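Dear Dr. H.,

I hope your travels went smoothly. While you were away I took the liberty of generating a structure for the chain from your last submission, since the lab meeting agenda had it listed for discussion. I wanted you to have the full record in hand beforehand rather than looking at slides cold. The sequence, exactly as received, is reproduced here:
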Amino acid sequence: MSATRVLVLNSGSSSVKYQLLDMRDSSRLASGLVERIGERTSRLRHSPLAAGGATRERSGPFADHDAALKAVAEELAGDGLGLDSPELAAIGHRVVHGGRHFTRPTVVDDAVLAEIERLIPVAPLHNPASLTGIRTATALRPDLPQVAVFDTAFHTTMPESAARYAIDVETADAHRVRRYGFHGTSHAYVSRATAKLLGRSPEEVNVIVLHLGNGASASAVERGRCVDTSMGLTPLEGLVMGTRSGDVDPAVIFHLARVGNMSIDEIDALLNKKSGLVGLCGDNDMREIRRRVDEGDERAKLAFDIYIHRLKKYIGAYYAVLGHVDAVAFTAGVGENAAPVREAALAGLGSLGLAVDDALNAVRGDEPRLISPAGARVAVAVVPTDEELEIATQTYALVKR
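The corresponding predicted structure, in token form, is as follows:
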């Protein structure tokens, strides 16, 4: 195939992130972000990486995703990288929720669009934006393969014992209630990159992946296949996050409705937007929380301790699920940059072969690296995630076939 470029689009409810990659060497040709779509203050920030050019900004307003993507196309064209280029092989789209149906990247057709639309009730914020991005990109290049890469796909290998909730089976099946998991492209990329760092194939290693950003999730990856993950029906379950509560007793919802006289929408907003670190201490930026901890702020310390306690529980749980662990990999904004989080999460787990070397843990860098002591029974790694490259890789592999 002569066409080797892939445009990756990540369409949010009011934003579009994009990267253009050349799959001959996985190099980035351009990247950018359109934010606050639909508002008067919307803007586009575009970086022509291949030419080493300066970042350019355009003010909106961009009324909708159609206007935003047309502006992106214009910026790319200005660098000689337009969507009409014969070197463009496909456009890869991040789609958050693929349910049980989509277990791998898929070329989009009318049936695929209909299924993504049917999944809107379990992804009301994300799937509509993905649909808009796909339809707009299709209108711009109707002759080009549009490929959907699903956040949930990597987790479809979970056994039923991990994926099902212990509720009435008929009710669960009727309403698609089960654990799907998210951040799948990141967990897939990081688990493979960790194996490579160890000089082994993914099928030879068991890895616990800790994707720690504003959204956070853990996964147990056994020989390249996910067997458990912390997020569930939605991205709310699991670890303490920036604004999300993670695990709570479901009866908390009933209690707040009955005793607190809160509506379902109010409780939804509470658990998704006003909980987690921001609910505990008023900040969801780990750097600010650590600064406050170092200054003796008790509320920030409690928030940090709760965050670490939950994280440590999942590490222990997934160690038990896997039985044997070759590596623990930290990734995403907090995982890659917050040395105190990594240190605290593994503190006291020496009997499991888990420890960090203080000097190695303090090093910052953009490359995968080990931070465990020499000769450690279990490797501890920091592996920068690259979801755009993962989407591009999966997209290109599909269209080449």
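Two observations you may find useful: The longest strand covers residues 27-35. The CA atoms of residues 265 and 271 lie 10 Å apart.

With kind regards,
E. W.
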